[in-house]
Amino acid sequence: MPATEQPTTPTTPAAPLLGLGDEDRRTASRLLAGFLDRYERSVATAPIVPRVDRDALSELLTTPFPDEGIGVEGLFREIDEKILPNSTTVAHPRFLAYVQGPPNGIAPYAEAIAAAINQNCNFWQLSPAASVVERAVVSWLAGLFGYPATGGGILTSGGSIASLNALTTALHERRPDFRERGLQASGPPLVLYTSAEAHRCIDKAAAILGLGLDNVRRIPTDGEHRMRTDALAEAIRADRAAGREPFCVVATAGTVMSGAIDPIGPVADLCEREGLWLHVDGAYGGLFVLADRRRAALDACWRADSIALDPHKLLFAPLEAGCLLVRDRTRLARAYAFKSAYLTVEEDPLMVDYMDYGPQLSRGFKALKVWSALQAFGVGTYRAVVDHVLRLADHLGQRVEADPNLELMAPVTLTAVCFRMKGATEAEHTAALATLADEGTALLGPALLDGRHGLRACITNYRTGHADIDLVADRVGELARQLRRG
Ligand SMILES: Cc1ncc(COP(=O)(O)O)c(C=O)c1O
Question: How many structural domains is the chain composed of?
Answer without folding.
Answer: 3
